[in-house]
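The pair is quoted verbatim as follows:
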Amino acid sequence: MAKKKYIISVIQLNLNNTPANNLVKCTEWVKKAASKGAEVILLPELYSSHYFCQSEDTENFALAEPLYGTSFKAFSALAKELGVVIIVPFFEKRMAGVYHNSAYIIDTDGTEAGLYRKMHIPDDPHFYEKFYFTPGDLGFKNIPTKKGNIGTLICWDQWYPEAARLTALQGAEVLFYPTAIGWHPQEKEEFGEKQHGAWMNVMKGHAVANGVYVAAANRIGLEKYLPDTNGIEFWGSSFICGPQGEILAQASNDQEEILMAEVDLDLQENVRQNWPFLRDRRIDMYGSITKRAID
C-alpha cells in the first residue's frame, strides 16, 4: 500500500553541455536530492542536451535515443540503487522519421512504471518543436509507483486544463511538468513578467481545479548557440504547489537548485471534501468539449 505521505523533488539545472556531460551532471543531482530525502524526483524537459528546438536542423535528430537506451539504463540503475522514483524526460527515436518528446517514469526497483509522450506540440519562434516531435499517442495517464500515483505531462501540456483534468481523474495525486521555457531576451522587458505570471497561474489553477499537487522543473541560463540570434533565456522559477495552489517551494530565476515538498494524501482528501469540484462536474453537459470550436 502506498504511503499517505511522501517527498517529491524538482531539480532545476543549466543544461548547455553535451549529452554525456548532462547525464553525469543529472545523475549527481538526483543523488543529492535522494540524500535529502526525496522519494520522487523530476528532471527538466529534454535533460540530455541544450534546447535544440531553437532551429530546424536535421542534424539535431542525432541527439535522439531509442527506447531503453542510454538514459533508461543509467537512471534505471540509479533508481534501484537509491530506492527512488525518477522522471526522466528524453528525446525518443521511435523509428526512422518518427520521434517523440518523452519521459520515462522509473520505479524504485529500476523497472519502467510508465512512459509518457508529449501530447501538445508547439511551433513558436525558436520553439520549433513540430519539426522534431510527433504528437504523443499514449494518452494522459495516471502512473502507479511504489511511492504514489503520479501523472507526467510535458511543458506545452501545461497550458491545457483538459490534460490536467484527464490525468487527475484517473487518480494522479501529483502532476509533474518537466519544462523548458524562457524569454526571448529582446521581449523580456515588455512581456516577461506577464509571460512568467501566466505560466505559474495556469498550473496553480490546475492544482486548485483538480485538488492535486503540481511540480514543474524548468532549466536556467541563456542558451545562445545559434549565430545572429538572441537565444532563449530560460527563466527557472521551478516550483511545487499544493492542492489549493499554495506555493510549497520555489526556485530562483538563475540558480541550480533542488526543491522539496511533502505530498500529504490526507490533506488532499480534506481539500477535495471541502472544495468538491470533482463532485459537481456536469459531465452530462460537456460533450462539445471535443469540438475544435463551437460555431
Q: What stands out?
A: The longest strand covers residues 85-95. The first helix runs from residue 19 to 35. The radius of gyration is 18 Å.
